[in-house]
What we know:
Blueprint lengths: L1 E6 L2 E4 L4 E9 L6 E7 L6 E7 L5 E3 L7 E6 L4 E6 L8 E7 L13 E2 L3 E6 L1
Parallel strand pairs: 2-11
Antiparallel strand pairs: 1-3, 3-8, 4-5, 4-9, 5-6, 7-8, 9-10, 9-11
Amino acid sequence: QVQLVESGGGLVQAGGSLRLSCAASGRTFSYYAMAWFRQVLGKEHEFVGRINWSTGTTYYADSVKGRFTISRDKAKNTMILQMNSLKPEDTAVYYCAVPRVVGGTNPNEYPYWGRGTQVTVSS
């Protein structure tokens, strides 16, 4: 099993910044990638971005490209989501997830999830 714990959420004004962390522990295997998703109550999980664990290559949803940056600390098994220029529409619960194999933008490809952290952006 893989345990994922998100932290760093909170309330911020539009235009502000937040930094989320996702700490992974448990089963020791080499993750191919880790990803961030977000969810608004009543809606499906929305892909935010992912990082190739080995190369650090990142891929983002168009809605966050240029504003959000994903990085990782391999030694600490931690993934970071730096969110800048936040907008009210970024308000959601943010989750980190690990895919079964490669992992794309479909949440069904990710069997391991954290509990999420709330991000609220006020206008």
